[in-house]
């Protein structure tokens, strides 16, 4: 099974291009994903993961994802090779996105809605969140 789940911050805005053969949209971006553990006395390390999103998902990412935003990506790892004009072989490993989600707790400048992105959580008067009772849930 080849499945990857990542959560990190975009290091740059998605870059859009189109394939030459059938003009399919491809969005490329990089995620800075923090490592889980920090060695004592050192700063937290991050891995920089290249991600590509095709067609409609690529269009979504290019339209709504911005540098610095925290997102979650579900996809698969893919490796590929190609030769450049000088005959030099290049290798790349990237994540091909199959699903993409916003992972920030609140979008910058968003003051219009009181509903948090977590299902069933509404802000209480003290500024925190309380879960709605099970009576309100649709199942």
Outline, from the CA principal axes?
globular
* pLDDT averaged over residues: 82
Which class in CATH terms? Answer: Mainly Beta
CATH superfamily: Nucleic acid-binding proteins
Model regions low in confidence, pLDDT < 50 over at least 5 residues: 111-139
Give the helices and strands as they follow along the chain: EEEEHEEEE
H/I helix tally: 1
User: What is the number of beta strands?
Assistant: 8
Strand content: over 45%
Mind summarizing the main beta sheet? 5 strands, mixed, barrel
So, CATH architecture? Beta Barrel
Write the layout of secondary structure elements.
Layout (H helix, E strand, L loop, with lengths): L3 E7 L4 E4 L6 E10 L11 E9 H10 L5 E14 L5 E14 L18 E3 L5 E3 L8
Parallel strand pairs: 4-6
Antiparallel strand pairs: 1-3, 1-5, 2-3, 3-4, 5-6, 7-8
Structure description:
By secondary structure, this protein is mainly beta. It has one domain: Beta Barrel (OB fold (Dihydrolipoamide Acetyltransferase, E2P)). The protein has one helix spanning 55-64; strands at residues 4-10, 15-18, 25-34, 46-54, 70-83, 89-102, 121-123, 129-131. A five-stranded mixed barrel has the order 1-3-4-6-5. The protein is globular, with a radius of gyration of 19 Å.
């Amino acid at each position: 099974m080849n499945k990857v789940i990542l959560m990190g911050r975009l290091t740059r805005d998605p870059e859009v291009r189109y394939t030459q053969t059938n003009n399919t949209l491809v969005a490329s971006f990089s995620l800075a994903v923090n490592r889980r553990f920090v060695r004592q006395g050192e700063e937290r390390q991050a891995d920089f993961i290249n991600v590509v999103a095709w067609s409609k998902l690529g269009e979504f990412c290019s339209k709504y994802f911005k540098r610095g935003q925290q997102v979650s990506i579900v996809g698969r790892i893919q490796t590929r090779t190609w030769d450049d004009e000088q005959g030099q072989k290049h290798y790349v490993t990237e994540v091909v996105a199959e699903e993409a989600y916003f992972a920030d707790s609140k979008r910058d400048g968003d003051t219009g809605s009181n509903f948090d992105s977590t299902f069933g959580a509404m802000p209480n008067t003290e500024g925190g969140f309380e879960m709605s009772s099970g009576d309100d849930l649709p199942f």
